[in-house]
Structure formats: structure tokens, C-alpha cells
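Input/output pair, single chain:
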Amino acid sequence: MISGIIKRLFIGAFLLSFVLVYDSYIYIQDNLMIQIVEDENGDEVEETVSLVNAAKTFVTEINEPMGELNFIYNGQVLNPDSVWEDDDGKEYILVDADGNETEDEDGTTVYGSGSTIWKEILQTTIIKKYKLYYLIIVFIVLGAIWDIIKSMREKGAPERNKKASIKEGKKLVSTLQSYYEKKSWKKILKIMEDPIQKGKIPVAELDQFDKAHGLAFFHTGNEAKAIPILKKYCLKQKDDEEVQSILGKYLSENTSQARVQDLPSLVSYINKNEIDEDFAVFFAKFVMKYKISDRSTLSGLCKICGTPWADASIRKYTLECLVKFESTDDLAIEFYTNCKKATPEDPKPVMMLAEANMSNGKFSEALSELEILLSLDYENQRLHEMLFTIYQLREGLADLYAIYSSILEQYPNEAIAVAQQRKIMNDPTVNAEQVDQRQNLSLQELLAMRKEGDSSADQDIMKKYEKNLTIMFTDIKGYTSMTESQSIVETMGILQESDEIVPPIIEKHEGVIIKKIGDAYMARFESSDSAVIAGIQIQQAIWKNNKQREKDGKIRWEIRMGLNTGNVILKDGDVFGDAVNIAARVESAGEANKVYCTEDTKNDVANSKLEFEAKDVRQVKGKSEGIQLYSVVFDLDGA
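Output:
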């Protein structure tokens, strides 16, 4: 502001000076009084020009004596005696308005002795006459006011610009929202691809239009530009299912472009769509490569594990991750169940199912899993802790004591069973005398008590001796007629071959041969899967053996096989119960070179790769309704 005042002051001074110079020139030209001094010959000796406020005067001669100064005004010689002197000692010759000499101080100064031309000019110029210097003051004041206004406007300009920009930005946001709702993709691109227009959108609002920007490219066919924008958007908005679905589908078809940060999109795609083998294998390898184990990724792996393309490595990795995090939600339970069916010999999924059921208060289901675990992972201390907890909550520690007693009957002095029984007896809620009394009773004593009307004997017998097992019966087809048509040596050779084939395969699959009667075997299995697989391998081995017999010119021998699953009484290595009788009936109804089973066995099998073919419904002795039989589907050549 100060610099503006100085600038205007300088300009005003310059203008005044210009006016002064211009006015002085005109004044001097129009108002000239010549002072002439002549010598004795009449020649001019000196000429002095001074300012007068009168018309132009031309002096051609003088009437005064030479050598003296004459004053000429309007062609008249002025009387030097009319000189008036002011207080400062300066001399003036005054004339009135008509140009006549006067002594009135208000007269016009014609000549001032000792004064200068410029002083006369300043006193008589139009600047003073019309007070032009006030214009300069007005000019400077108005300029200062303008500077103040301008300064205030300049200070407020950023704020005004900001408000204008915000207003315009809000308008653009509203426009983009309208275009997005109408799916006007090209109009969205027109704004978002214009740097000027895009720059007007508030930064806080800009991120929300990354989605609209990406979708606009996607729906106009420009996937190359759409995908990076949508990926960037998903890093901030991971729960947007629409974008996740688009990215998932695109990446499933372009797996080479998938990165770790794209996993949420891939998982979203897996959970909502049917997947093919190539993508399932890619996803599983991708996850295992980077050792990713977050919850959402594991959900995708769980789904893959439910497909035919899941191999053991995928299932193992998923299981290890879920066990590590001790996951027991619905998805994890479903996965554990599938694992249990696919790999019934693996104790981990069974243990996690037991943990899940126990945490959800499903003690009966948990006990079912723990009973399986007793044969799969008996030395797992967590198993025995859970058993103790459940039986304690159900006030049934005496029953648990009985379970360990049955184990000790088969494996005397087994350390864990002994320790657990000691723990049970030390529990203050257990009646030691009652436990000892009931647990020390033999099967015969319990049967006697039952006969005498003790209703609790049945329960004690079932708790102590009942087990859910798969029973297998095998029998050589036509063995009786074979012995009649063949020599005893040949018959003994066939029995020897049977002994070399059947028992090893049963034992290989953790089966126990209960007894052998002539050419027939009776065996029990803890797992129905193991029983079925053992049956398949026995028939395949006999088929292969018969091919060699044919080459050697010997007759073929074949067996029938029957399986049934159910609750039996296990005592001293033998089994009793209706399930045993049904297994024997199934074997007799079966066909050579096949494995027949009941619906109970089929339903108990967990391995999804095992297939069954429905056969006839057979009437079984002692049963009012017929039993649906099934034949296991397999290739005798082992393919």
C-alpha cells in the first residue's frame, strides 16, 4: 500500500511538473518583458528577461537615458519610481488590471527585484490558480483506497476461490453420483479422464469414485485400464462384493496377473461360483506357495478340499492351518468332516470335530469322535483329558472307569489307562466302592444279574463290552464240491493259498481275524472304510492268483464276501450280536469275486472315492423286513 502511495505521488509530481513546464513555456512566450540597457552609442549592453502577467511585449526603443534600466510593459515605459518594496526587501513594480502603474499592493506584479523566473511562475501559474495540487491529493487518496480494497480482495481471493472450488467440486460429485446410478459409463469417463475436471473433485470424495472409474472402463470394454483401478479400490474397500466378484472372475481367467493382495477377490469368487480344476489347483498352489493362512483364504481352501481335485497336500495344509488356529466354526467343522471321510486313518480331523462338539456342548457327538480316537491316536493326552471332562460333567466317571477297564483287559498294565483310572478314583464325586463293585463283575456275572431282574445290568454290559464294528465274512465258493472233485492235496493247496492271501490283507488294514472255520474267515474292523478296502484288495489278489493258476493248468477258486456294520458285544476277542448274524447272511447272498455289504456299511463309509451299486433286497432270517444289499464297484485287475 505504501509503495502504491509513493508511486502515485511520483506520478502526480511528474504530471504537475509537466503542467508547470508546459504552462511556463506558454507564459514566457505570451508574457515577455524585456529589460534593455544601452551604451552611449545606443547599442544593447544587457538583456534580462523576467516573468510578467501580461500580454506579449515587443520593445524596439527606449526613451530613458542610456545605461539605465528601462521597464517596458504593454509597449509603455514604466516609471522606475513606482517601485514597491515588500517586507523582505524585494522590489516590485505593480500595475493594475488595465496595465497602469499603481501602488496598490493588490496589483499585478510586473517585476520583482531579486526574484527568480520560477518563483514568479509558481506564483502565477495555473497550477496555483486552479489549485491543481488538490487533484494530486485526491488522486493519491483514491489510489490508497483502491489499494486497500484491492488488498482486501486479494486476501479474500483464496478463500473465495476455495469456496468456488468446493461448490464446483460438490456439483461434480453430485453429477458423478447421478451418472453412476444411471450407469452412464461414458459420461463418467469423460469427467474422470479430464485432469482439470478431476482436479476439482475434493480429495476426500475422490476415492469413492475409483469404483465408478474402474467400472466405467470395465463396462466399456477396457479391462486393461479397469483392473488396476479396481484393484486399488479393493485395497481400501475389501468388503465390496460387486468389485470383488468382477476381479475374481477376471483373475480366475488370467491367473498370471494374480498377486497376494488379490486373494480376497479370488476367495470371493471361489465362495460364490462353481470352479474348475485348473483354477482350483492354481489357487491351492498359490496359497501354499506364500504360506497364507488367514481365515478368508482358508474358507476358499475348505471349498476346494470338497472337490474331486483336492489332493492330499492341499488337504494337509488346510488341516494344519485350521488346527493351528483351533478353528471350530461351521466351515471348519464341514472341512473336518470331509477330511474324516477322505482320510479316516488321520486322527487330526477327528480330534478337531471332538473339540468343536465339546465347545458347543454336544457331548454325545464329542464322545462318538473320542471313541474313534481311542483306536487312532490313543496316546494323545488331550483325548483323555476331554474324556475325563465330559464324563465328569455328565456324572459318569464310573462309566469311563469301565472303558479303561476294557482296555486293560486287552492290554494289561497299559500306562494311560492305569493313570486315568487312578485319576477317576481320586475325584471326590466318584463312589469308589460302587465303581470297584460294578467294574470287577465279569460278563457272566452281569448276565446273571440281568437274569435276576437287575435292569442296570444291560447298561453295564453295553458300556463295558459294546462296540460299533464292521464284521467281515469270507467263504470259498463251492468248497464242498471242490473237495469231492479234487485230491486232498489240491484242496489243501487252495486253503494254503487262501491263508497266504486273506489274513495278511486283513491285518494290513488293521482288521482282526476273530476265527477261521474251514475255508471261511470271520474278521472285525474298527473302520468300515478299512473293511471295504481290505475286501477289494483280497478279491483283486485272488483274481491275480487265479490267472497264474490258469497258466499252470490248475482250477480257479473264488470267494464270496459279506460286510455289515453295527453294535456288537466284544468279549475275549469274540463278537456277538445281531450285526454279526446279518454279516454272515450277506456273505451267503453274495457273488464270487465281489464285495457285498449292507446299507449300514455303505452309509458308514467316509471315503468318497468308494462307489456302491444297489443289488437285491434279501430277506434275512430273524428280520421282518428285507435288507438292501450293495456291491462295491471296483476293477478286479486293480486299475
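The CA atoms of residues 611 and 633 lie 5 Å apart. The longest helix spans residues 133-182.
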